[in-house]
Amino acid sequence: MIQARDDEVNATALTLHFKYAKYTILLLTEPLTPFSTIKADLLTILKERYPDGLESSKSPSRTKLPDSILDIVLGVQTDSYDPSKGWDELNTGSGIINESPKSLGLKDGAKIAFAFVGEEEEDKEAKELFHVEYPNLDELYPEEMAE
Known about the structure:
Layout: E1 14-20, E2 23-29, H1 35-49, E3 54-56, E4 59-63, E5 72-77, E6 87-89, E7 111-116, H2 126-129, H3 137-140, H4 142-146
Parallel strand pairs: 1-7
Antiparallel strand pairs: 1-2, 3-4, 5-6, 5-7
C-alpha cells in the first residue's frame, strides 16, 4: 500500500476524498500534482486493496478495475450541499495537459467521484456516469429520527 511517511507530508498537502458507490479512498496530494499522477496513485491503491473489483448496489457483479488511467473519469458535486443533484465531470486533461487540484480550484477535503469508462459508458451524461452511495440516516438511527 502507498503510505506517506511523516517527513514526506507537507503542510500544503490536500486530502482528496475519491468516492465510488460505498467506497471512499483518501489521498494526500500536493496542490500542483498533475491528475495523471493522482489517477495512477488511485488505480494502484484500488488494485492493491480491491483486486477483484468494486461492489455496487447498481450491479450484481463486481465492477472490474481498468488497466489504464485513461479509463478513469473524475467528477465533482454539482451542489456541495445537495448530493442528489449529481456530479459534473472534471476536465483533468489527457496526456499532454497536466491539470492539478489547484488549477481546477479544488480545496482540502474535496469530494471527487470516480468512474471507469468502457465502450458502453462513453456516451453517458456525467449525472448517470458517477454512482456514489450515501448512508440512509433514517435506517441507521430510526429511534433518534422519531424524536
